[in-house]
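Data availability excerpt. The first of two example chains:
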Amino acid sequence: MSAHPLDPIFHPRAIALVGVPSGEANVAQGFFTSLLEHHFERDHGLYPVNPKAQEIRGVRCYPTLLDTPDPVDHVISLVPARAVPVLVEQAIEKGVRSVHFFTAGFSETGDEEMAALEREMVSRLNEAGIRVFGPNCMGLYVPSEQIAFMAGFPPEPGNVMFVSQSGANASDVIRNLGARGVRFSKVISFGNGADLRAHHFLDYAAHDPETEVVTAYIEGVQDGRLFFEAVRRAAAEKPVILLKGGLTGAGARAAHSHTGSLAGSTQIFDALCRQAGAWRAETMDDLHDVTIAATTRLRDVQGRGVGLVGGGGGIAVLSADALAAAGLEVPPTPEETKRQLHEFIPIAGTSVNNPIDTNMGNAEAMERTLGIVARAENIDLVVTNPPLGRVGPAGAERPPDAERDREEAEAAVERIARLQEETGVPFVVLVRGAASPQMEHFAQEAYRRGIAVYPSIHRAARAIAAILAWRERREGLPAVV
């Protein structure tokens, strides 16, 4: 834990869910389901509140918040907007630390009466020393505390924090980056931001010892100066990647109806990121891919010379085009490197001119090739396919065998990790198309060993170029511990 004033709200001793439905599963009950799935109740208090139920899913239910055992640090509001005033008074009497309003229907509706109610309830809670998430948000995912707002999230904690105005985007990032091996320290969906806003969480991220890389999706910048200062503080300590929604007219209208946010111009947000030292992602794919780059050895890439190994003639040509379009280079293979490669690679049907097509299914020969290319004087990183020999997705020469395929994937990761360590050159591995279980396991293990994996050469090229541009602008990125 850190000494930051927000830290206690990420470590509640007990959570009460007020308004948990007892009927069929829905989004509101999903909060309760996900906490049970992550076994929050094993080390904390978990108290569903519903006056019409004695228990829900085997857990005792309480008629009101005031009837729950002490202490309750965090409350999740699942009640309709009209019931919020009563809940606010009970939360104050109970002495909670924070309230998360999943409840929607406030300022984002554009209705002044509901906007006034939002201001009033936040004011009442703040006066009592209680902080507010939302309204209109999904709240917290803190794996180290077994807190999640949807089922199926990875239970293991990690080093990436994601701050999001959108609950859907928060879920997307957790699931999709999670599938690529990324694990999270904290994910926060803050919706309308009536109390706690992006700048609060970014300031906290700068101090959080569990967070090493900071990412965020923002629709409307609230408190512009405070936001800028928080981004600058965080970016001075850790890599910060920001995605801004609502930069077009259509996006701005959607953002306003979504969280009541007023959008700003692309030029202003670009300038903010440049001055603060953050990276502005243009798309959600960019946010995903630059996060992968910033949390693997790819972040150490020193130059633009790419050794492209494997893929066949036509694929190699298009891959070289994609790299060049991103401002990277595919330099000619040095003569000494060619000589070393020709010691074991036949001339017929292959090419040792970068892009290098060895046309070999032998994993050991591929490892030797990769090592020689990585040590070439003009190569700063190597892009290749998984060195799995002739073993691959369903439909390959051998029928799938789960245990064997898993072992071979781990052996392939070990080969690349060893080369990456020995040569000091980052490796990027492309896993194209629909991945087999073996390839999915390869990607997860590769990330765990610091190897960047991408679904296409185009996305890999953009991420590599982003890291280089970021470093050149900043004269170095903050180190990841």
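And the second chain:
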Amino acid sequence: MNSQMITLESDLIQKLKWLIMGRFLFAVLLLGSTILLQSREVLFSPTTPLLILYIVISGLLFLSLIYYLILSRIRKNVWLAYTQLIADTFFVTLIIYITGGFLSIFSFLYPVVIIYSSILLYRKGSVFIAALCSFQYFILVQFEYIGILKTFLENGDPGVMGYSGNQVFYKTLITVGACFAVAFLSSILSEQARNSKKELIAMEEHIKRVEKMAYMGEIAANLAHEIKNPLASLSGSIQLLREEVKYDPDHDKLMRIVLRETDRLSSLASNFLLFARLPAGKLEKIALDRALSETVELFEKDNTFIGRINVDHELSSGIWVLMDSMHLRQVMLNLLLNAAEAIESKGTIKLKMYPVKDNFAEIAIVDNGCGMSDDIINSIFDPFFTTKSSGTGLGLSIVHNILKTYDSRLDVESKVDQGTRLCFKLKRTEPPLSANLTLTPEHK
């Protein structure tokens, strides 16, 4: 997920570059058309509106240069986007005022600004810019109507004064409504595009992870078999030797150490083999809320976490999935264990399960622990990678492989010192017939 944020940030920078270039080209075209208009009208000495228009064009060109120079030096690109968009609304208002105010044909520039604000800042930004454009246009028209601002109209055209109050009100209302309508529609498209891009990035990361794990899994399977066979021979030989030789406390102590470490290596090799080749599970219809509640109860009985970790769970009822119950329990225990170990002293783990679109159920585990940096997030699925003083570093690798068999993936969001959110989705299924049977009062 953090790589997603990096990608989206670089995408924002690219969009800002295109915006700066577009603004520069617009200013150049406006400058050319103004010079052409002046030459056709044979205006050797520019009039007041033309002078103001030249100032506006110069301001646009100057700001485009400034924006481009500071783009690579500023960290908060969102604030730079807001600054540019707000400045653009004022320039558009000034252009509308110069070219006739209420009668100007350039009021279409407001929706243009709103559209690219939705591309840059999505719904929140586009609604803000729409409100700002509406406010500026309303003030401009009102000031014209009551005579505070004088429009630059020729041939004695009365401008807005030639219209009734109702006509002015309706046109203003239509313009304001158009601004918000454009903001709403364009933000929907932008949000959909952003979500699609996020999903695409997450899928690309998942595919790369699967390819990497598949390659490592082949190596791991062969290596695990090669380790387990000599370990079994070694353990059996030590046990026979322990039974046949004369008892000696020192020798017996050494043999017990050998047996203990042999069992530990055998367990590690078994986990490694489980990571490499997950055994096929027995698919059954599971009531997800019941299965998760039982797993939480099992986790809470661990003496390591009693009194230190509190698990809050919000589980939607009536959701069934087709899955091996042991696989589900193994996934949940691993994720709960990781969340608990990320909390140094006392803390809370929030477990949520709820239905989502496309007939899926999402399970989220959120802790308020130490969090993870981007480098750690990129490595947590690698076998034997761990930040703990103990552990094999295979837990999340096994979780990844289990979820992969159910066409699911584990998504991670984390911030250092703020906590971590792990979530995955499971395909929902119809409940078994027995779950739908209810006894009527006379049959009870």
